[in-house]
Amino acid sequence: MKTIFAISTAAAAVDLVTFDDASNWKTLIDPVMGGKSVATASVADGHGILDGEVKIVPSLKAPGFITAQSDMNIDASAGYGGDLVMKVRSTTPDYTGFKVSFAASTTFATLACASGGSTALGRGCFKAPFQVAAGDDFSEIRIPLSDFSDKWSSATGELTTLCKDDASVCPTADKLKKVQRVAIWGEGAAGKVHIELDEISIESPHGKVNLLAGSEVALATFDGLDDASSRKWLQQNDPVMGGKSRGTFTVQDSIGIMNGTCAIVPSLNAPGFIKASTVDTKKFPDASNCAGLALTVRSTSTPAKYPGYRVSFGSDSSFLSCGKFFARGFKADFTPPEGEFGTVKVPFTMFTKCWDDATGDAIKPCSDYPEFCPPTSRLADLQTLSVWAEGHEADVKLEIKSIAAYDCSSVTV
Q1: DSSP letters along 10-47, please?
Q2: What is the distance between the alpha carbons of residues 156 and 302, in angstroms, rounded to a whole number?
Q3: Where does the chain hold its CATH 2.60.120.430 domain(s)?
Q4: Could you tell me which of 259, 257, 83 has the C-alpha nearest to residue 176?
Q5: What would the DSSP string read from start to end of 42-108?
Q6: Tens digits of per-residue pLDDT, 13-65?
Q7: Residues 382, 371: Cα–Cα separation, whole Å
Q8: What are the angstrom distances between the C-alpha of 153 and each of 112, 159, 160?
Q9: 3-state per-residue secondary structure call for 323-382
Q10: CATH code for the structural domain at 6-213
Q11: Nearest-5° Cα angle at 240, 234 to 245
């Protein structure tokens, strides 16, 4: 499964879901109160499939639900006022309980979309019903965003308050800035369900416009709420050849904190490093259509304006072409603001995999040596993220609110 952005030549659109594999297309059924519904979510031939049966929940004497869902973190605000567009086909076109939902703005909304409950905390889980035309070919379903509401019955999925009647239940541009989950439902009607999806997108009503200026994809956050971007980090210091640097990495109040001392390595008579790296196995979102990394950070170091901060990703080696055995991945310098949080943007063209493993300094920059620039394949799978204090002696403290990929876009013709 890959979540991407796209700009169509006919109309601008933000693609929410395309179906490349099954890693991010998961099923959920009515587990509460003894639900009996059954379902599988799968991917075949580039299509997402929901197959199963909605059955009566015995304790409720009413139909339950099945759903297939995909997680993401997409700014779709430029699609405000437009439509949610799907290409679908079904062998059960007469089934009357098809619905589509998207969770926007809050983690509680994502949980509500997952659990089948629209609560006060779950406001922001927007749902709408739809019908599928009979036939063997995929057909386009276009649902105005004004047909969605985040007030619906947790028992049936039916909308209890319509957007046209109460603006507070409508998807707003602000809420569309963070679309976190899209789901297809069979709900509130007993019966067999089989539906296949080719794509799901939000399309702008304004024609040929660039929806994606400033769009970001979250890579790392520290609030512990977003499974996609909340990651496990590990601190590492210069252990080779008797390094004396010391550091820790902790999370407090939704902020990652790297705190320590970059000290002289006695055997080298030069400063070493401290760094914090992601060590979990969760795959990063595809950043191959993005301009670079955006770090929301602040520094308090002694002395101030510490010049040795770096950020890196991947584990690529350039030993044969660069001659630095311990240099792994693509690295770039960045200068965080002092004292107050700010966002620093580091273009991917600033990263190189030919850097000095003793100092961290670039040896052959991407701008002059394209062979050392990050390739599309690596940007599509960053593997790991690391933040460094390196090559300069100091007491450093770097606080990180988030790391994202910025200016993400792709053109489809």
Answers
A1: SSEEEEEEE-S-STT-EEEE--TTS---EEEEEEETTE
A2: 60
A3: 6-213, 220-412
A4: 83
A5: EEETTEEEEEEEE-EETTTTEE-EEEEEEEEEE--GGGTTSEEEEEEEES-TT-S-EEEEEEES-HH
A6: 555 555 665 677 888 887 656 788 999 999 888 889 999 999 998 888 889 99
A7: 17
A8: 12, 6, 6
A9: CCCCCEEEEEECCCCECCCEEEEEEHHHCECCECCCCCCECCCCCCCHHHCCCHHHHCCC
A10: 2.60.120.430
A11: 60
Contacts with 220 (C-beta within 8 Å, 6 or more apart), sequence order: 229, 230, 231, 256, 278, 385, 400, 402, 403
Cα–Cα nearest to 105, from 171, 169, 194: 171
Taking CA 126 as the corner, what is the angle to CA 225 and CA 148, rounded to the nearest 5 degrees?
A: 165
Report the pLDDT averaged over residues 332-348.
Answer: 95
Look at the block and give the residue holding tokens 């996609």. 228
Give the tens place of pLDDT for each residue, 134-154.
888 999 999 999 999 999 988
Question: What SS3 class is residue 219?
Answer: strand
* Each residue's pLDDT tens digit, 251-275: 999 999 999 999 988 877 888 899 9
Contact between 273 and 260 under an 8 Å Cβ cutoff? The reply is no
220-412 homologous superfamily: Galactose-binding lectin (2.60.120.430)
How close are the terminal C-alpha atoms of the chain, in Å? Answer: 21
Nearest Cα to Cα of residue 334 among 374, 372, 292: 292
β-pair partners for 255: 252
Helix-then-strand count for the chain, H and E: 3, 28
φ and ψ of 78, to 5 deg: -70, -10
Q: How far apart are CA 352 and CA 375, in angstroms?
A: 10
Q: Where are the beta strands (DSSP E) in 91-211?
A: 98-104, 125-129, 139-144, 179-187, 191-203
